[in-house]
Amino acid sequence: MSNSNRPALSTTMALGLFALGLAGCSTGGPQLDQPAAPAIGPALPPAFPPQDIVGRWGLAAYHKQEDRARTEAAARGQCNQPYVITVGPSGGVMMHLADQATPTELRLGGGPGGKTYIGPADGEVGGSQDREVVLFDGRILILRWMDSEVQGRYGTMVYVRCGAEGAARTAAKPKPRTAPPRPAQ
Predict the structure, then answer these.
(1) Residue 159, helix vs strand vs coil
(2) Does residue 146 contact residue 129 with C-beta atoms inside 8 Å?
(3) How many CB atoms lie within 10 A of CB 113?
(4) For residue 14, is pLDDT > 70?
(5) Cβ count within 10 A of residue 106
(6) Collapsing DSSP states into helix, strand and coil, what is residue 52?
(7) Which residues, including other chains, have CB under 8 Å from residue 82's CB and lie 6 or more apart?
(8) Is the Cβ–Cβ distance between 46 and 108 less than 8 Å?
(9) What is the DSSP letter of 44?
(10) Strands 83-87 and 156-161: what pairing?
(11) Which element (helix H / strand E) includes 150?
(12) Quick one: average pLDDT of 31-57?
């Protein structure tokens, strides 16, 4: 090989290496192992059955934890216009999803750590449309939206049971008896 061919050979080798480099880029380069999506295991039972939250509720919401007590009192005051939770056709509960005007049947599902979620039956437990049950004691139900954008708009929802549902009810007072009409003479 003569010295006059060296620049052409170097240029050819450089172009070849460049082409190989571009070919490597077009295939995405070396593939890194992607973490597998977490497997959804068997559904865990919720901490309570759906029937436990059926009823009439006063509803209010807060954004700051320090407003919780005030919000519970405000929710009690809403019992004159209660939020009504009913049993759905498939055994779930009828409640509203974020930004939806009509109620949808939602299911209660258990999650890791003993958490309970309320959300659509077709989604995964703890999904973006779900609400986490922060507290439920039979009289107060506190729900936090899983979607941070929705949580920022709606806040943490506080439901306070209206009336004495779930408590022993007193018997209705009997109507006073009236004297039977006197027979005509």
Answers:
(1) strand
(2) yes
(3) 6
(4) no
(5) 24
(6) helix
(7) 56, 57, 58, 59, 162
(8) yes
(9) B
(10) unpaired
(11) helix 148-154
(12) 71
- Look at the chain and count its residues: 185
- Check if the beta carbon of residue 146 is closer than 8 Å to that of residue 117: yes
Which distant-in-sequence residues (6+ apart) come within 8 Å of 159 by Cβ? 53, 57, 58, 59, 75, 83, 140, 141, 142, 143
Reported confidence tier of residue 10, pLDDT bands at 50, 70, 90: low
pTM score, two decimals? 0.67
Residue 142: CA atoms inside 13 Å, Cβ hemisphere, count?
Answer: 13
Q: What angle do CA 152, 75, 108 make, to 5 degrees?
A: 65
Q: What is the mean pLDDT of the chain?
A: 79
CA distance 58 to 61: 11
Structure-block tokens of residue 60: 């209010």
Q: Which pLDDT value is given to residue 164? A: 67
